[in-house]
Specification:
This protein has 961 residues and is α+β, with helices and mostly antiparallel strands. Helix content is 29%, strand content 25%. Strands 8-7-9-10-21-20-18-19 form an eight-stranded antiparallel beta sheet, with helices on both faces. The chain has a six-stranded mixed beta sheet with strand order 1-2-3-4-6-5. A hairpin with a 2-residue loop joins strand 33 and strand 34. The longest helix is centred in the middle third of the chain and has 22 residues. It is elongated and about 110 Å long. Pfam families: PNPase, RNase_PH, RNase_PH_C, S1.
């Protein structure tokens, strides 16, 4: 090869190898082509090309089993540069937690710990649906999982350690069976153990569920969906660190049993972490701690202790008065230090004064049992409740406990308004949402409103969990519900005040809650032996103030009903609290909760009956899918147009249209627009809005009810004589018309004058004016879709149909010919139509009756049209006098008329009504009336009256009172 190259170009011999084509992986130019050299090319065999070595990653792992699930901890393979990194695997779900700390000395007086949790869609093999096709800002679930990791690890950092620490947790793969939240918390603990950061771990985090009364350790997502308990518990070997509970009214006794089980199970996570740290952990680094010298602390304590005691022993101080007095003391101490030139004392002044405050308050509570505001240890602050203070809204409530005040409002929406969740595990949407807002003015501060706040999301979710347990099932209450909680004033436990206010607002909105839910926060003041770290003495405080939360050891939020607990959140400040003290705190929490429930029940104890002006309306209608496609329009444009014009919300599913309107007026407006697009069942006496599409000499053709056409004869234009149709109506004009019948050709006959008041005249014959309905009458039987197949087969021969939605919506109840087809026939029949003027007038007094699809059943048979009675006599044959009509003789199809009273037996019981046997093979239907009796049994005899006929000629009956 070298000799050939010399012959071709001697200069190639002098080119360094680094500039040759083989060096860059290309072939020699041949036949004008440039290609890549294969890895086994013979041209490289003779050269001294370095061979890439194989890197061997030294990994360390630990395997163990908890709750019948195999768990693996691994380090050394991924994220090797992080101060500590661990991959935790449970079945096919794997998570990664890393930890890093800043270098250099810290010049601050707090621990800047940041915990970030992220779920990326690649973990389940999905590309994000966002415009950029990548994940955006943290979602609510990610913020909540970050808080779940932060709360148990924060108390274990040593006092005075103020270096910045960042924990990052992410999901590498998810099989959807396990919730990654507690996995990342345990992995973060293991990563901190491997790092050189001083930390008092490890910790163990466990989840406990309960199914059919049996506790389940580390339940799967499927098991959690049927569990009435979701307990997340974190602890060290002998103390509790964090607790988070969502339950369905679990008793205090059962919860204590779950905690006693959770502690030893969580401890099983500790030894594997210790063994892994022994194999691959780093030597703990000597970080500089920001400690206060004893001399400086004593100087500040001598200056501030007595004035602080004077403030805290005076119960007349309010929140802000007390704060101003304490700030004045701090400024006095600052001036004294400035005069002495004590720079060290000035740097640590705020932190030291806060420590003195803490000692004064805690010593007084333990020794004297008296709190800052003069209350007893188990006393709840004064309460104020008010429900329905904003009557225009669906529901509202104002709740105050002491100086804490919360305004809660409820908004009801369509099922489509439910929040869509983009999470790796859990449900895809939720219909109940609680949004908690903590504006700066509630603490008399100036602040900037930003996006999602971790604290606001956490408090709102806690209140949401508490109220979710008492909501009615979705089948009974299909609305989407949003509670908005605005904190108006804050002095402790605003999240628990949100629970109380939200419960009252839900009842004010008319939502049938099973029970009221109330909540309050329990605190702890303890005295610790400095040599052993054990608690020597303690006091449990009921309904803590914001100051007691800040200066105390525990914030134990407990919410529930009279029957049990629905939600808990426990946060602590020291490095753990014994489980016995946690369980002991449940009893004073129950006592205080019952006091609050009594006040709430005195204000509102049952769901309120709503005012029709403001209460929302929900209607579910059945249509065929083809009909619903017409309603939605191209890419949903028609549906969005209706929603924009009316303000209502429409949700479309398979064969079902759900409409939610702000009030009854909006609902009628929406139904009117829906009827105009897709139509409804045509009824005699029904009033419809239509548009004139053509004007003829004998009348006008009107399009109405979803594209159907009817004839507005010239004789039905006005009570006065009309010479020309165009004098009264024109093409494109919108009219409200009444259906007055059907002619022999199958055309719908409409009347304009029937909707107008009749002028007074002495010569007029006294005829009752028709009553125009103002709202749509929904066919009861169209909603019966939940009937089982067996029941449908049994009722196939019964009179009432179980609603063939396709035939009801796609095919009109009465076949209508177009204007073009009827034009010639109507021209030849103009004189005869005008001659029916008297009969049309008589038909106006007909009550609202559905047009039967079988004309022979209604007395309007086209084959016997010439022999049948016309006009008023024909109508009177169909309708009998309601007061005198009765039938004690054997019934037959020809004898049954409108208004006739008969005795019937219950044949079948449907979801929305009854199938009644009238005898002689005749069956009719009775729909349940609001507030009327529904507990019927098959065979019961009822006295009923024929009120109308369905489109298939089936009698529609009503009870005789």
């Amino acid at each position: 090869m070298a000799s050939v190259r010399n012959k071709v170009n001697p200069l190639l011999c002098n080119i360094p190898y680094v500039f040759t084509w083989p060096r860059f992986g290309f072939r020699t130019i041949c036949s004008g082509r440039l290609g890549f050299t294969p890895s086994t090319s013979s041209s490289l065999a003779d050269t001294d090309t370095p061979v890439t070595g194989k890197k061997v990653l030294e990994t360390f792992s630990e395997e163990f089993e908890i709750g019948s699930r195999k768990i693996t901890l691994e380090t050394g393979k991924i994220a090797r540069f992080a101060n500590g990194s661990v991959v935790l695997a449970m079945e096919e779900t794997k998570v990664l937690s890393t930890v890093a700390s800043s270098k250099g000395d810290a010049v601050r007086d707090f621990l800047p710990l940041t915990v970030d949790y992220q779920e990326k869609q690649f973990a389940q093999g999905v590309i994000p649906t966002t415009y950029m096709r990548r994940e955006g800002a943290p979602k609510e679930r990610e913020l909540l999982c970050g808080r779940l990791i932060d709360r148990p690890i924060r108390p274990l950092f040593p006092s005075g350690f103020y270096h910045e620490v960042q924990v990052m947790a992410s999901v590498l793969s998810s099989d959807g069976k396990q919730d990654p939240d507690i996995m990342t918390a345990n992995a973060a603990s293991a990563a901190l153990m491997l790092s050189d950061i001083p930390w008092g771990g490890p910790i163990g985090v466990i989840r406990i569920g309960r199914i059919s009364g049996q506790f389940v350790v580390n339940p799967s997502m499927d098991e959690l969906s049927i569990s009435d308990l979701n307990l997340v518990y974190a602890c060290t070997r002998d103390k509790t660190l964090m607790m988070d509970v969502q339950a369905r009214e679990i008793s205090e006794k059962d919860l204590e049993a779950a905690l006693r089980l959770a502690h030893p199970e969580a401890v099983k996570y500790l030894d594997p972490q210790i063994r892994l740290a022994a194999k691959a952990g780093k030597q703990k680094k000597e970080y500089k701690l920001s400690m206060v010298s004893e001399k400086t602390f004593e100087k500040i304590e001598n200056l501030a202790k007595e004035p602080i005691e004077a403030v805290f022993t005076d119960p007349t101080y309010g929140k802000f008065e007390r704060g101003e007095a304490l700030e004045k003391i701090t400024q006095d101490v600052k001036r004294a230090l400035e005069e002495e030139g004590d720079d060290e004392g000035l740097k640590i002044l705020p932190k030291t004064v806060d420590t003195v405050r803490k000692q004064v308050v805690r010593r007084r509570i333990i020794s004297e049992g008296i709190r800052v505001d003069g209350r007893r240890l188990d006393e709840v602050r004064p309460l104020y409740c008010e429900a329905g203070n904003l009557p225009v809204l669906h529901g509202s409530a104002l709740f105050s406990r002491g100086d804490t005040q919360v305004l809660c409002t409820v908004t009801l929406g369509a099922p489509g308004d439910a929040q869509r969740l983009d999470s790796l595990v859990g449900p895809s949407s939720k219909r109940f949402m609680l949004h908690y807002s903590f504006p700066p003015f509630c603490t008399n501060e100036v602040g900037k409103r930003t996006g999602l706040n971790r604290r606001e999301v956490g408090h709102g979710t806690l209140a949401e969990k508490a109220l979710l347990a008492v909501l009615p099932p979705e089948d009974d209450f299909p609305y989407a519900v949003r509670i908005n909680s605005e904190v108006m004033a804050s002095d402790g436990s605003t999240s628990m005040a949100t629970v109380c206010g939200g419960s009252m607002a839900l009842m004010d909105a008319g939502i049938p809650l099973r029970e009221h839910v109330a909540g309050l926060s329990v605190g702890l003041i303890s005295e610790v032996d400095p040599s052993t770290g054990e608690i020597k003495d303690y006091r449990i405080l009921t309904d803590i103030l914001g100051l007691e939360d800040h200066l105390g050891d525990m914030d134990f939020k407990i919410a529930g009903t009279r029957n049990g607990i629905t939600a808990i959140q426990l946060d602590i400040k020291p490095a753990g609290i014994p489980l016995d003290i946690i369980c002991e705190s449940l009893h004073p929490a129950l006592k205080g909760r019952l006091q609050i429930l009594e006040h709430m029940e005195r204000e509102i104890s049952a769901p309120r009956i709503q005012d029709d002006r403001y209460s929302p309306r929900l209607v579910t209608l059945k249509y065929s899918n083809d009909t619903l496609r017409r309603l939605i329009g191209p890419v949903g444009a028609l549906k969005r147009k209706i929603e924009d014009e009316t303000g209502a919300r429409m949700s479309v599913s398979d064969g079902t249209l759900t409409i939610v309107a702000k009030n009854q007026l909006v609902m009628e407006k929406v139904q009117e627009k829906v009827d105009f697009i897709i139509g409804r069942e045509i009824e005699i006496g029904g009033v419809y809005k239509g548009i004139v599409v053509s004007v003829k000499e004998y009348g006008a053709f009107v399009e109405f009810n979803g594209g159907q056409q009817g004839l507005l004869h010239i004789s039905e234009l006005s009570h006065e004589t009309v010479s020309r149709v165009s004098d009264v109506v024109s093409v494109g004009q919108q009219l409200s018309l009444m259906c007055i019948g059907q002619d022999v050709r199958g055309n719908i006959k409409l009347s304009l004058k029937a909707t107008q008041p009749r002028p007074k005249s002495k010569t007029d014959i006294s005829i009752d004016e028709p009553v125009a309905p103002t709202s749509q009458e929904v066919n009861v039987w169209t909603a019966i879709e939940d009937v089982s197949n067996e029941q449908e087969k049994q009722g196939a021969t019964a009179g009432p149909e179980t609603n063939d939605s396709t035939s009801k919506s796609a095919t009109p109840a009465v076949l209508i010919r177009s204007a073009a087809k009827c034009d010639e026939e109507e021209k030849s029949d103009v004189l005869n139509s005008k001659g029916d003027n008297g009969s049309q007038s008589a038909s106006k007094s007909v009550k609202k009756t559905r047009i039967p699809s079988s004309l022979s059943e209604s007395g309007l048979s086209s084959s016997n049209a010439k022999k049948s009675k016309r006009g008023k006599d024909a109508i009177l044959d169909l309708i009998s006098d309601e007061d005198n009509a009765t039938s004690e003789t054997p019934m037959s199809a020809n004898k049954l008329k409108l208004g006739m009273k008969v005795t019937a037996k219950v044949h079948q019981i449907r979801a929305l009504g009854l199938v009644l046997d009238l005898g002689c093979g005749i069956q009719g239907m009775y729909r349940f009336e609001p507030g009327a009796k529904r507990d019927f049994e098959v065979g019961d005899e009822l006295r009923v009256k024929c009120s109308s006929f369905s489109t298939k000629g089936i009698p529609v009956l009503s009870l005789v009172k």
